[in-house]
Amino acid sequence: MVRLATASLVGTAIEFFDFFVYGTAAALVLGPLFFPTFSPLAGTLAAFGTFAIGFVARPLGSVLFGHVGDRYGRRPVLFASLLLTGCATVAVGCVPTYETIGITAPLLLLTLRFLQGLGLGGEWGGAVLLTAEHAPANRRAMWASFPQIGPAVGFLLANGVMLALTAGLSDADFRSWGWRVPFWAAGVLAAVGLLLRSSLAETPQFEELSASGRRASAPLTEIVRDHWRLVLLTAGALAVGYAVFYTVSTWALAYGTERLGVSSTVMLTCVMAAVAVKGAATPFVALLADRWGRRPLCLAGCAASALWMFPMVALLHTAEPLLMFLGFLGSLLAFITMFAVIAAYLPELYEPRVRCTGAAVGYNLAGVLGGALTPIVATTLSDGGSGPPWGVAAYLTVVALISLGCFALLPETLPAPSEAVEAAPA
User: Fold this and answer.
1) Element (H, E) at 166
2) Which listed residue, of 123, 280, 322, 414, carries a Cα 20 to 30 Å from 105's Cα?
3) pLDDT of 295-354, one tens digit each?
4) CA pseudo-torsion sign 416, 418, 419, 421
5) How many CA atoms does the CB half-sphere of 160 hold within 13 Å?
6) pTM for the whole thing?
């Protein structure tokens, strides 16, 4: 389990490094480089628009790679998704700017961001099922939480590199070539991830499905026909997590630098510190889910998000590093109370024959609802006025309450004590 969990964590971290480095670049530099004819606000919105395309592609990646995972195994998904995301990310670092090739530049950026999202849409389902389906039932949430640490590690890597570059280079050098370095580094990271995953075994549950001839011939068809309500509920339930995370990691970064005049180095440091604490807390929260259940923690995380959004915006608007950090930290702890748990919760909600497709589609559809639109909506709501952007806080609170209602309609899936004992290794 340690080897499997480590390989899942490392691979997920690499894929999310690829995904997050684009979001940071969109907040800091892509607007003026690829949309120079726009106003500063419109350029930021356009850059966040290309950022959103990655989320739109993720459910499509879930369908594509989910079919592979349910038909041919969880293991092939891990290789194909990592390879696709890595290649697309390296290519982003090679795209000439608008000044060089005109309108072709943002079009290429849009295409590559779509391919990034397509790969990441398959990654989560494969990595989570690899650990969840190998894990003993009484510790499934804890082991399955390791891929959920991957986004925090990927975010810290992406922003750590960006922080070093912005601090060590002049603004002109960073805009000229420095921002491309993290994208080029993705190729090396992808090679490391593929090497680590080369010796992983297929999951016992998929091997059992194959041996019994019970694999789904058309997983998406079964999901749409038999589980559509579950997909919509899980997507709605998880939307707040995406909304909160990308408010902190993407919109707040742009708002702090452009509207509050805080240096990008300070903003990145505040966000990274909060993400580091969130990542460290993930397995401990998951242990609580193995003891008390998945649904109670998800409901608690939603409620905490709804209560914390106005304080978070107020703390952000102070432009004081410590207060901004505390605002971000409260938001991300509420977020991880839900997202540490769902790596076990979502697979348990779906039957094994369509699990890779169902869990991944629900998870990534939530990304469209909560992650793709939030930076754009928040940027629009925060435009104008000198006071705190209360419209952003109100928007996030509404999303949190909708997610709370969706979680309330989902069942508990904590294994019964007898099942946990029988499934535990001798």
Assistant:
1) helix 146-168
2) 123
3) 999 999 999 999 999 999 999 999 999 999 999 999 999 999 999 999 899 989 988 888
4) positive
5) 11
6) 0.81
